[in-house]
Specification:
Largest sheet: 5 strands, parallel
Structural class: alpha/beta
Oligomer: single chain
CATH architecture: 3-Layer(aba) Sandwich
CATH class: Alpha Beta
Strand content: 5-15%
Number of helices: 6
Number of domains: 1
Order of helices and strands: HEHEHEEHEHH
Shape: globular
CATH topology: Rossmann fold
Distance between the termini: 27 Å
Radius of gyration: 16 Å
Length: 176
């Protein structure tokens, strides 16, 4: 979450009022994003997750409560129809996380419509692309998007490194 906020702040000069589309599984990355962004006034977060793979109900409820207090908006839908326009950013994460498994054998078919492709930029041509990496080109995102001009995923990865180092430094200092 810190990495995502840092990347957005650096790129846009603000987090308040940004409009983001998250596409993919309602995993830890999606939860952290929902819990972080809904604290900022005017932010709009639209989560598009496959049916059965959304955010945990408690996380979504907490994000909605925070959004109500801060003047943000959060919504989760389980289809890729009627996507919002004029987005500032599109975000996705890996479909497969090491050490986890999906509850159904046909999960790849369920996830297929949620792949991030260049078509998502038709109504939001100025949007940037975020991915917490590592990515699987051709699965959750096409290479054209990940390696394209809208991608700031590798800047985001640099911030991830520095965030992890800062947390380790903080933990180490606490032991002294």
């Amino acid at each position: 979450g810190l990495t995502d906020l840092t990347t957005l702040q650096e790129h846009f000069g603000r987090v308040d009022g940004l409009r983001l589309l998250y596409v993919g599984e309602g995993n830890n990355s999606a939860a952290a994003l929902a819990l972080a962004l809904t604290r900022f006034p005017g932010t709009e977060l639209e989560l598009r997750t496959p049916p059965g793979y959304g955010l945990a109900p408690g996380i979504l409820a907490t994000a909605a409560e925070q959004a109500a207090r801060s003047g943000a908006q959060v919504a989760e839908r389980h289809h890729m129809r009627e996507l919002p326009a004029d987005l500032d950013a599109v975000y996705t994460t890996r479909w497969q996380t090491t050490g986890t498994s999906k509850p159904t054998a046909d999960w790849r078919e369920v996830f297929a419509p949620f792949q991030v492709t260049p078509a998502l930029w038709e109504t939001s041509p100025k949007a940037v692309f975020l991915h917490d990496l590592p990515a699987h080109r051709g699965e959750e995102v096409t290479a054209e998007v990940l390696d394209g001009p809208a991608s700031i995923a590798f800047t985001q990865a640099t911030h991830k490194l520095h965030s992890a180092m800062a947390v380790l430094e903080w933990c180490w200092a606490g032991d002294r």
